[in-house]
Each structure stands twice: as C-alpha cells, then as structure tokens.
C-alpha cells in the first residue's frame, strides 16, 4: 500500500505546476535548471515526492517566485488578499492561464501599470451604479462579440 500524500505536499506540487505553466516552461526545462529529471518534477507536482526546502528554493529562483507563494491555500487567510484567494479560483480556466502567461511576458513596468489600469476600468464597467456585478460581458447589451 502506498504512502498517503500530505495535503501540504499536494498544494506545493500543484503550485509548482501552476507557476511553471504560467511561465510556459516544460517539466524537462525546469528539471534541467534545478538538476533533476522531468520525472522528478512530475513527482513533485503530483505531491508523491516531497520537495526539500533547498529544492523549493531552487525552483522558486528559476520560476522567479517567492517561496511562500508555493504555499497558497495552505496558509491561513490574512490581511494579504493574495493568500486569501484559493489558486483554483484564481486560475480556473485555460483562458485565465493564457492571459497570465502573456502578462508574464510584459517586461516594461509602465506598460504593466497601464494594463492594471485597463483591467480596473473593465472591472468597474461590469458593475452597475449600485456597485453590483452585472454578469459576463456577453450578456451586456453593449457587448459586440
């Protein structure tokens, strides 16, 4: 009988997979950069093998991520909203993932601020004057899709 996978190992692995995918990196490429096989990366991502602290540090460097970001969903909710939102709700669809991949390709901080302002305007436009969400843009009368 196999070992039971600890929930934290599963969360860390899922977040490694999500961050690797967001950066458009293969398991092979990540493995080469941290000195392990792609099979080992698969095992980390499934949670079947635990990621050591030193390996997690190396993975974080390669993925340009904060080590604590691998523990999203494992951390208690705090004032920091980044950790209050489960990863599954944040990156729920393939389209969400594609959008995030493109955002990671933008290097100019000024352009990133403009994108953020645009997204804020779009989100504000989805609310009626009472501040309620009007639903998807496809159901909006001005939608030209």
UniProtKB/TrEMBL annotation:
Pfam families: HTH_3 (PF01381). CDD domains: HTH_XRE. The keyword Ribosomal protein does not apply. Residues 16-70 form the HTH cro/C1-type domain. Keywords: DNA-binding. GO terms for molecular function: DNA binding. It comes from the Bacteria. InterPro entries: Cro/C1-type_HTH, Lambda_DNA-bd_dom_sf. SMART domains: HTH_XRE. This is Anaerobic benzoate catabolism transcriptional regulator.
């Amino acid at each position: 009988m196999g070992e039971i996978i600890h929930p934290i190992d599963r969360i860390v692995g899922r977040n490694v997979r999500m961050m690797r995918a967001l950066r458009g990196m293969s398991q092979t490429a990540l493995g080469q950069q941290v000195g392990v096989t792609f099979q080992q990366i698969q095992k980390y991502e499934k949670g079947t093998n635990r990621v050591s602290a030193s390996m997690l540090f190396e993975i974080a460097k390669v993925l340009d991520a904060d080590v604590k970001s691998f523990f999203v969903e494992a951390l208690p909710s705090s004032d920091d909203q980044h950790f209050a939102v489960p990863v599954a709700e944040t990156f729920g669809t393939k389209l969400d993932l594609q959008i995030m991949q493109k955002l990671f390709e933008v290097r100019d901080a000024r352009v990133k601020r403009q994108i953020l302002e645009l997204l804020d305007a779009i989100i504000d436009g989805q609310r009626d004057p009472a501040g309620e969400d009007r639903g998807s843009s496809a159901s909006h009368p001005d939608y030209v899709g």
